[in-house]
Design brief:
The chain is of the alpha/beta class.
Length: 453
């Protein structure tokens, strides 16, 4: 099929019908299959010669994707995907993601995308309210927790620099359970980590206060990062205690809630987040437990003006964005410039389903984790490693070696029973469930656990 330049942008009803037909079929999968990891050599052979001078028939390309490429991708939206942190976007969010894509919406500035930004800001306000942040709080949607943590901690760094002599040493307090993206961020922005030992796997205010009191240069610590739901174990730090120390010492208080922040919508665990209302910046990824498509993370600041002072980009062609008053330009609140309006699918789904549906779905994951923990306690050859605070459950199969865990995991996936990868626990290889999808059932959990007999 020839795709001359003058034809590439013309409407093509046959192509529309072809692709929409595939999307309709994919949206109606119930349940979504796990599928399998891909074989590199086979995939390269299937793709060989595809990107050629003259193009290919759309039906042939879509068939290749459907039969070969899509089936070499483990589906994070399957209810049997219980590794890492799954993704379970609502059908409404997925559909509206298509609307955003086909309209080529970008969300850089109020000038270009006022309607989209107004809707995104409505969602940011909802999340800020759940966290108890003040009326003036605001921010932007970024690609993920890594981008959110980087953008927020750059603001923490530069805000501190204005108060310190040039060339001052800068450190940010973290515990050993902090997410790898925070460690990476510190390396990128040239700030040292100030490591504080965790207490029962939590970062506590008392431990931070003691570490600062024992350090010869406490004035070089400019910020503290608390975690609202560690990725591996779902543990929520002592946010109230960390906030108190941060307030006493004038430290920027950042909360990484990329995975666990969605628990703010769940009454059964809401009190565990007390202290988050004092955060200077906060990140939560709706593409995790708020059922949005990839890639969507909400970054919110207590005082957005501080972020704007750091992130606003200065270029002559951008002057027009800041010429007309004080409207909201999302590009001013993170390191990005170009961005898609990635908060709109979440906005649409929330508007369609209502917040109570989200609360119910999050509570379902919490209940599943508690019931699974109780089942593990009652199973002689299994050992629960911690009572779940959120929806992650780590456990041990008595007597297994590292290789046995990995062999078990590979067989589960090969049999399409589940995608459950091993993890580490104090240097030991163990098993872990990450519950998020409301379609995951205790029957599925029992089926997986029965394979460990």
């Amino acid at each position: 099929m020839t795709s001359a330049p003058h034809r590439m942008h013309q409407p093509d009803n046959d192509l529309v019908d072809l692709v929409f037909g595939y999307m309709r079929e994919r949206l109606q999968y119930d349940p979504v299959p796990l599928d399998h990891p891909g074989d590199g050599e086979q995939l390269r052979n299937h793709l060989a010669g595809l990107l050629n001078e003259h193009g290919n028939a759309p039906a042939d390309v879509l068939k290749l994707y459907d039969h070969e490429l899509s089936r070499a991708v483990i589906s994070a939206d399957s209810p049997r995907y219980l590794s890492f942190i799954p993704c379970a976007p609502t059908k409404a969010a997925l559909l509206f993601d298509m609307v955003v894509s086909c309209a080529s919406l970008q969300g850089i500035s109020w000038l270009e995308a006022a309607g989209a930004i107004a809707a995104e800001n409505q969602v940011l306000r909802l999340i800020a309210d759940r966290a108890g942040l003040p009326e003036g709080a605001g921010g932007t949607f970024v690609s993920g927790g890594s981008a959110g943590n980087l953008s927020a901690l750059v603001v923490a760094r530069d805000t501190a620099r204005r108060k310190l002599p040039a060339g001052s040493r800068l450190r940010i307090a973290v515990a050993d359970q902090v997410h790898s993206s925070v460690k990476n961020t510190l390396n990128i922005i040239g700030v040292e980590a100030f490591p504080v030992p965790a207490v029962d796997r939590r970062f506590t205010g008392a431990a931070l206060r003691a570490a600062l009191a024992a350090d010869p240069e406490p004035e070089t610590v400019i910020a503290v990062v608390g975690t609202a739901g560690t990725t591996n174990e779902g543990i929520i730090d002592d946010l109230a205690g960390l906030a108190e120390v941060a307030g006493e010492r004038g430290l920027w208080f950042h909360v990484d809630g990329a995975y666990g922040g969605a628990g703010l919508f769940a009454p059964s665990v809401r009190e565990r987040y007390n202290g988050i209302e004092r955060a200077d910046s906060f990140v939560v990824d709706p593409h995790k437990w708020l059922f949005a498509p990839f890639d969507c993370a909400a970054l919110i600041y207590r005082e957005p003006r501080l972020a704007k002072a750091v992130h606003t980009q200065d270029a002559s062609y951008l002057d027009v964005l800041h010429h007309e008053g004080d409207e909201w330009n999302p590009t001013d609140y993170a390191y990005h410039l170009t961005r898609r309006a990635r908060g709109l699918p979440l906005w649409f789904s929330l508007a369609v389903h209502g917040t109570q549906a989200y609360t119910d779905a999050i509570e379902a994951g919490l209940t599943l984790a508690r019931e699974t923990a109780e089942l593990i306690r009652r199973t002689p050859h299994l050992e629960l490693l911690h009572d779940p605070q959120l929806s992650a459950v780590c456990f041990r199969r008595t007597g297994w070696t590292e290789e046995q865990y990995y062999a078990w995991s590979r067989q589960l996936l090969a049999d399409q029973v589940g995608f459950v990868t091993p993890t580490g626990w104090d240097g030991e290889t163990v098993a872990r469930f990450a519950f998020l999808h409301p379609g995951t059932t205790m029957e599925m959990v029992r089926e997986i656990l029965d394979t460990m007999v």
